[in-house]
Amino acid sequence: MLDFNNVTVRYDEAEDPAVDGLTMQIAKGEFVCVLGRSGAGKSTFIRTINGLQPLTGGSVTALGYELGGLDQKKLRQLRSEIGMIFQHFSLIPRMTVRQNVYTGRFGKRSSYRNYLGLFTEEEKQLTSYFLEEVGLLPYADRRVERLSGGQKQRVGIARAMVQEPSILLGDEPVASLDPTTSDHIFQLLRQLHEERELTTVINVHDVELAKKYASRIIGLKQGRLVFDGSPDDMSKADLDDIYE
Amino acid sequence: MVWFRKRMLIYAGILLVLLILSGRGSDFSITGLFQLGNTWEMLTDRFFPPRWDLVPYLLQQSLITMSIAFFGTLTALLVALPLSFLAAENTSGSAPGFYLVRSLLSVFRSVPEIVFGLIFVVSLGLGPFAALLAIFLHNVSVLGKLIAELVESSDKGPQEAMSSVGAGRRTGQLFSIIPQIWPNVLSHYFYRFEVAIRTSLVLGMIGGGGLGQSLMNYYNSLAYTSMATAIIIIMVLVIIVDVSGGIVRKRVI
């Protein structure tokens, strides 16, 4: 499903690469948590999967397409199959919860239908279904800036899910939330993952959350893979190695 | 000198020298200030009582002034909005296109409305249309620049989210940026509308019609009490626009 081959990303101004020669595969239906210190390359790594981050070297193959060789149209098509949730939610202000979730369909429709806001009955039902799933149907017509942090992230999840994605990415989705809300968000992500066999890759700082919910943990340090295994395989020494 | 660095004194010195030079350049005089009493005397002697019988006629003229300002600025906003995306570094799509649009906006902005007005009065004839075109052209360039700056400083998060769902570039930009900048766009618009009302008065004085032209006619014929009525109507007009702009801004934000 996801194939990383010697993936390297180097930012212009940086001395060391953000991601350094990463090679691995992620199979369909895995729930992967990526651990690492700030600056370890987690966000950069996640963003290589949907092409938000161009590569300096190597290749990423997602859903059978090598990202480097795609034109803009194909890349947009691929992105429409990959949902993503963000640390700071990245919702569109001044729009309602429902309108924000509708934008998740943008990659699958023509521009003029997007501009005119013409959504099919099926798309409307899908939006309502996922709003119900994340527990926000009663707030559907509320503007997003009036929601709490946890509710905003649920909107982000609904927006990603309405894409009907094959892969779900999370870039520190609970870093701005309190521990209880973080746990609820992870419960929801795990539930969605199980219901749909959704391949899920999430960056997280909270080791306990990763151990509790992930089926596989990847540890990055200075852009390099230093741990790859199940939560049960992870020892204190492994953790020390990732975070030292 | 805990609060200030030494170089602040140098800046203050430079400012003082510039202030003195500009005072000389503009014939500023302290003694002249004491003669302001004459102005007050002139106003009370010649401008009062205003000619209230002219109110219906001047209200008609003020409608022309309002129409010039409203049509000129609203159409300018409609043109400036898409242009601003081409004039913003993060959304223009191509560096040559960005520099071209930005430069054109700068060139048009550098020409004052009154210069446009003088040109159009000669080429198109006397009347509100010349004033309208002058206001339109100047405001396209001003609003284009101001909105481009708002586009450049908008939060990149929603734009990235739109890219991640696979939205097209223009669709993503439209939906992620416009809602963010809309209150400030309206704020700029209302300010420009208010300025355009004052500008259309000035353009009226050079033949652009409306209240400004009436004001100039009264001034030339020394009809100061009629002038007073026109001035009061202008003041009321500007206050109404300012207050209604504030109400709309509050509702939108």
TrEMBL record, chain A:
| Keyword tags | ATP-binding, Cell membrane, Membrane, Nucleotide-binding, Phosphonate transport, Translocase, Transport
Q: Which PROSITE patterns match?
A: ABC_TRANSPORTER_1 (PS00211), ABC_TRANSPORTER_2 (PS50893)
The UniProt entry, under Pfam families, shows: ABC_tran
Q: Which GO terms describe its cellular component?
A: membrane
Domain of life of the organism encoding this protein:
Bacteria
Say if the entry is tagged with keyword S-adenosyl-L-methionine.
no
Family matches, as CDD domains: ABC_PhnC_transporter (cd03256)
Q: Tell me which residues make up the ABC transporter domain.
A: 2-242
Single annotated GO MF: ATP hydrolysis activity
The reply to whether ATP-binding figures as a keyword in the UniProt entry is yes
What protein name does the entry list?
Answer: Phosphonate ABC transporter ATP-binding protein
**Which species is this UniProt entry from?**
Alkalicoccus luteus
The taxonomic lineage of its organism, from the top, reads: Bacteria, Bacillati, Bacillota, Bacilli, Bacillales
From TrEMBL, chain B:
Q: What UniProt keywords apply to this chain's record, in alphabetical order?
A: Cell membrane, Membrane, Transmembrane, Transmembrane helix, Transport
Pfam families tied to this protein:
BPD_transp_1 (PF00528)
Q: Name one GO cellular component term.
A: plasma membrane
The reply on keyword Cell membrane is yes
Bilayer topology term: Multi-pass membrane protein
- InterPro entries noted in UniProt: MetI-like (IPR000515), MetI-like_sf (IPR035906), PhnE/PtxC (IPR005769)
Q: Which domain of life is it from?
A: Bacteria
Which parts of the sequence belong to the ABC transmembrane type-1 domain? 62-245
Give the residue spans that cross the bilayer: 63-87, 222-241
- Compartments (UniProt record): Cell membrane
Gene Ontology molecular function, alphabetical:
ABC-type phosphonate transporter activity
Family, according to the entry, reads as follows: Belongs to the binding-protein-dependent transport system permease family.
Q: PANTHER family, per this entry?
A: ABC TRANSPORT SYSTEM PERMEASE PROTEIN P69 (PTHR30043:SF1), PHOSPHONATES TRANSPORT SYSTEM PERMEASE PROTEIN (PTHR30043)
Name assigned to this protein: Phosphonate ABC transporter, permease protein PhnE
Q: Which organism is it from?
A: Alkalicoccus luteus
